[in-house]
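User: Predict the full complex structure for these chains.
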Amino acid sequence: MDFQIALLLAQDGITNGAIYALLALALVLVFTVTRVIFIPQGEFVAYGALTLVSLQSGKVPGTLWLLLGLGMVITLVDLSRAVRARKLRRMPSVILFNCVMPLLLAGLLSVVSPATFSLPVQVFITLILVVPLGPMIYRLAFQPIAEASVLVLLIVSVAVHVTLTGLGLFFFGAEGSRTPVFTETSFAIGEASLPGQALLVIVSSLILIVALYFLFERTIYGKALRATAMNRTGARLMGISSSMAGMLSFALAGLIGTFSGILISPITTLYYDSGFLIGLKGFVGAIIGGLASYPVAAIGALLVGLLESYSSFWASAFKEVIVFTLIIPVLLWRSLTTRHVEEEP
Amino acid sequence: MKIKEILFGILAVAAIGSAPTVYADINVGVTLSATGPAASLGIPEKNTFTLMPTSIGGQKINYIVLDDASDTTTAVKNTKKLIAEDKVDVIIGSTISPNSLAMIDVAAEAETPMIAMAAAARIIEPMDAKRAWVFKTPQNDAQMATAIVEHMTNNNVKTVAYIGFADAYGEGWWNEFSKIAEVRKIHVTANERFNRADTSVTGQILKILSSKPDAVLVGGAGTPAALPQKTLREKGYKGTIYQTHGVANADFLRVCGKDCEGTILPAGPVLVAAQLPDSNPIKKVALDYVTKYEAAYGPGSVSTFGAHAWDAGKLLSNAIPEALKTAKPGTPEFRKALRDALESTKNLIGAHGVFNLGPQDHLGFDQRARVMVKIQGGTWKLVK
Amino acid sequence: MKNLIFLWAFIVALALGPLVLPEFYVTLLNYIGLYAIVSLGLVLLTGVGGLTSFGQAAFVGLGAYTTAYLTTVHDVSPWLTLPAGLAVTAVIALSIGLITLRLSGHFLPLGTIAWGISLYYLFGNIDALGGYTGISGIPALQLFGFELKSGREFYYLIWAILLVLMVATRNLLDSREGRAIRALKGGSLMAESMGVNTPRSKIVIFVIAALYACLSGWLYAHLQRFINPTPFSLTQGIEYLFMVVVGGVGHVWGAIFGAGLITLLKQWLQDWLPQLLGQSGNFEMIVFGLMMILVLHRSRDGMWPIVQRCFPERAVRPRVAEAEPLPRRAVPPAGSVLLKISNATKRFGGLVANDRMSFDVHAAEVMALIGPNGAGKTTMFNGVSGVDPLTSGEIVFCGERVERLEAHEMAQRGMCRTFQHVRLIPTMSVLENVAIGAHLRGRKNFVHAACRTERDEEARLLHEAALQIERCGLAEHLYDVASSLPLGKQRIVEIARALAADPCLLLLDEPAAGLRYLEKKALADLLRRLRDEGMGILLVEHDMDFVMGLADRVVVIEFGQKLAEGLPEEVQRNPAVLEAYLGGIE
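Assistant: Here is the predicted structure of the three-chain assembly.
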C-alpha cells in the first residue's frame, strides 16, 4: 500500500465516516432525550434516497402513503383521546399537521409530475415527505411507553425497524437505485482526484454539525432538549413537555437521516434495506461516545468509516467481521469506565 | 380481553388459511426467491409462471407458486408443503443454489422430480440416487466461466482481478472461474468480496487497481454489481470489465448508466434473441418468450432469469405427454414416468439453448447455450 | 390439579398429533419445536434473567455447523457430534459471555447484535464450512438402529427433547439457583447483597441459553440435512426474540406459544399478504413488527398471561414442609468487635461523601448511624456492604480486612443488609423472597436443580425462610405475593430475608420508614431480641424516638464527617449535634 492508496482510502473512509457521524449524532440526541436506542435511524437514509429517486423518475413515492396513513392514525388516536378528555383545543393543529398537510402534498404530487421540478424543489419535497415520519413514529410507537425501561424501548425500536424495512420493500421494490450526481466537478490532490460529490458530503455534514451546535447552544428549543436530556423530571417541572422534546428529537433524527440519504444517493446504490447496516455503523460511533458525548460519537463514527475503508482493502471478505467485532472491546471499555447506576426497580 | 379475541381470531384464521387444497389435475409446485437478496432473479421467474401453458397433453396444469425469500429453511418448508399439501407431481425451484441444494433431499425422498433454476453444478453433479430426481435449466457456472475465459484469452488478457458478492453467487463464480483461469494460464491478481448493500467498495477497488490487472471480473447479480464497476471507472480504470450473466436485467443498465459501456458478459441467447442469426434454432423460441413477457410486463422488462423458468416449462411440456402414456397424474408412477421422460429429453429447444439430457447429464446444454454480450449504447449487443 | 390435566392433555395431543395430522402440519410442528427450544433459552435469559440477546441464531449455527462438518467431512456419528457441538458452543458462549456480560444494561443487546453479525459472516467465509453455498449430505439420525428420515419420526425426537428441557427449566427456576436468577431482573444489587455471585449466574444462564440454541441447531441440521449461513443470521436472531416477546417472555410456556404463533402466522401471512398487497415480499415482517409494538404497549408480558387467564388455577407456588433445620453460624461472644471502620473515605469526583469516618460495631449491640439528609449515611452503608467500595480506608470484619471484597463475599462472611428502597421481587411469594436470603446456605447447583436431586436441601431452605418469617411476625403472609403487602410489611420481609442468611451483623437502612406506631414497636422488640441473641446491628434511621429508644450507641455524621459518637443520652446533649440537627437551641 503506497501513500496514494492510503490517501484515497482515507478519503473514502472520511466520506462514509461523515455520514456515520451524522447518524451517530442523531442517535446520541434521541437516546439522551428519550432513552430510545433508535435502530430505525438508518431507514431514514434509505427512505430519503429512494423517495428522491422516485420523485426524479416522476413516480409518487410510497412514503407519501405512509405519511398519510400514520397521519390518519395519529389524528384518530388524538381525536378519540381529546373527545374523551373534552379538550379539543389542540385538535386543529393536530389535524393540520397530520392530515391536511400530507393531503395537500398528495394533491400536489397527483397534479404535477415531480420529475419536472428542479433538484432543490425535489430535495425539499423529499424532506417534507420523510422527515415528519420521525415525530409520527415517536408519537405512535414510543410516546405511549415513554416511561418503560431502555430494554423495552430497544425491543420496540427493533420492531419499528423491521416494520419500516418491510414497508420499504413494499414501496420501493427489491432493486437498488441511485440519483444522478449533484456536481460533476472534481478536485486534484496530487495524482488523486477528489470527486466534488464526496467533498459535498463532507462539507454538508460539517455544516449540519455546526448548525446542530448552534441549535443546541443558541435556541430555546435546543436548550429545552438539552435540559430534558440532563434531567427529564426537572425539565418537566420547568414546563418542558417531555413528549414535545421527544417529538423534536425524532424530527431532528428524521431530518439528519433523510439528509444523509439524499447526500449519498449519487455516490452509491441504495436498497430498501441498506439503512440497517449504515445505521449500525453510526451506532458503533455513538457507542464509542457512550451514547452521551456528541464530539466523541462523531470522532468514533469517523474512525468506523476509516476502519471499514482500510479493512475492505486488506481483507474485504472479513470487513463486517472486523467492524462489528471491534465494537466489543469498545463496549467493554465503555462498561468498565462508566459506572452503571442501577435503575430503581 | 380484546387481545384475547384477536389472538383466537388469528389462530382460527391461520388454521383455516393453511387447510389443504385438493386438485385433480397435474400440479406443478414452484418455490422461488421473489424476495430477499435474490429477488432480482426470482421476480422475473415468478412473472414467467403466469405466461406458462395452462394445459399440456390435454391435462390441466395448476402452478402453485411460493416465495422462499432467499432463505433455505423456507425453501425446504415450501417443498415439504408442496409435496404434502398440494400433492405436486413436479417441483420447480429454487432460484439460488443453497436453496436448491437444500431441497434435493426432500424431493428425492418423496420421489418427486425437481427442476432447479439455480446455477451451481453441485445441484446435479455428481450423479447419485438422490440427484437422479433433480434437473436444472440454467447453464452451469463453469460453462459461463469458460466462455469468459475464452473471451479473455482471445483478447490477450493475461492478468485478471476478481471481485464478487460475499454470498453463494460470488463464491460459486470464484470457485469455477479461478479453476478455469488457472488451466488457461490466466493469472488472477486479486480476489475481493463485497456485500450487496455496501455503500462503498473503494478499498477493494484500490486493491485491485494496485495489482494492475488487464481485466476485472465482477461476480454479482442485479443492481449491486454496478457499484464495483462505477467505482472502477471513477478511479480511472481503463481495462476491460467483465460481468456475469447475473446482471442481465434492465435495472442493472438503469443504475449503471454510461459507466457500463463496453462491459462484456456471457449470457443465455435469450438476452439478445433478436440479434441471433435466423439460422439459429433458438432464436424463434427465445423471441417467442421475449414477446410474451414484454407484452405482459412492458417493453424492456425481460431478463434471462425468467427464461430459466420458461425452459423448465418447456421441459415439462415435452415430458408430460410422454409420462401420461404410462400413468395418471397424482400417482408415484406418474412422477417416476415424468422423471424418466425428463431424462430422455432430446433436441428440445429452449430459450437458453438446446436440451439433450441423459442419465449422467441432467442439464444437457452445449455451446449453443451461451453467447458473449457487450453493453453498447445502453443496451445488450451480441458479440459475433 | 386441573393444570396437571391440561398438561397431560397437551402431552397426549402431542403424541397423537403426527398420527392424525397431515404431513405439512407435522413439518410446521417440527419447526415450532425447534424454534421453541431456542425460545426457551431466551425465556431463561431475557424473561427471567433480564438479559436481552439478539444473537441466539448464531449459537444455533454453531450446533448445526459442528455436526454438519464432523458428520460430512470426518464421518463422525451424529450422536457424538452432539456433545462436541455442545462443548464448542459452551466454550464460545463462555468466552463471549465473559466479555459481553460485563456490559451493563443496554450495551449488552447491542453487543449481541455485533457478534450475531460477525458470526454469520464467519460461517460464510470459512471454506471448510462450505462457505455461503453450504454443506449438503448431512446424514439422518439413527435411533436404536432405526433411521429418523421422515418428519413424522423426527417429530417425536424434537418434542421429547423440548418437553425434557421445559421440565428441566421449570425445575431450575423453582430452586435456590432459580431464585437467584429471578432476582437478577430486579437489579443485581439486591441479589449480590444476598450472596448471589451475579456475574456467575449471568454467565450460567447465558451458557444454558446458548446450549439450548446449539441443541436446536443440531436437530435442525439433521432434519434439514443441508445447512448454509442464512438461517443463522441476525434477522433470525431478531425473530427468536419476537417469538418470546410476543409469546410471553417471562413464561416457560410462552416460548412454545410464541414459537407456534409466529410460525403459523408467518406461514399464513406468506400465503395471503402477497395476494392482498398485489406483490410478493416478506411482508409478514411488517405485521410482526406492528404486533410486537402492540404487544409491548398493551401487555408487556406477552400473550401467554392472557391465555393463562383461561386456566382456572394459578401457578403452584412452593410450600413449606417439615425439614431438618439448617446449621447455624457460631455466634461471636457478646461485646467483641465485629466491624471496625477506620478512615473510610468515599469520593464521587470532587464530592467527598464520606470523609475519614471511623467507628466500630460490637456483637450484641445496636449501633445507630444518624445524620441529616445527604450526610452520607447510605454511602457509608454501601461502602461497608461492598456494594460501592470505598475510595480509601480500612474495614475489618470479624478480624479480616474486607474493604476490597464484593458484596456477595461480604454476605458470605456473615454481614447482611436491607435497603432504603425496598428491593423485593414483586411477583414472588414472601416465602420465596425470604428464601433468597438463605442462598448461601445451600450448596446444590444448576444441574441438581434441573434434575430435582436437591429437594432435601430445598425443603430445608424453605423451612428456614418460613422460620424467619414467623420470627418477624409475618406468618400469615407466608404465601402472599410480595407486592400485595403494604410497604411497612415489605420492609419487615426485607429483614426476614436478611435473617435467613444467618448473619452475625445486620445492616438496616431506615427499617422504620413507613411503619405505623404498633409496627414500629414490634420491630423494636424484634431487634432487641436479635441483639440479645448476640447479633450486631448497624442501623440508619431518621425516626429519633425509635433510634434513641433502641440504640446502644449512636454515631452522628454531617457532610460526610463524624460529628459525634456515644451513648444516646450523651449524643442528645452534644451541642454540635443539636446545632447540626435542630439548627441550634435558643
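Chain B is about 40% helix and 20% strand.
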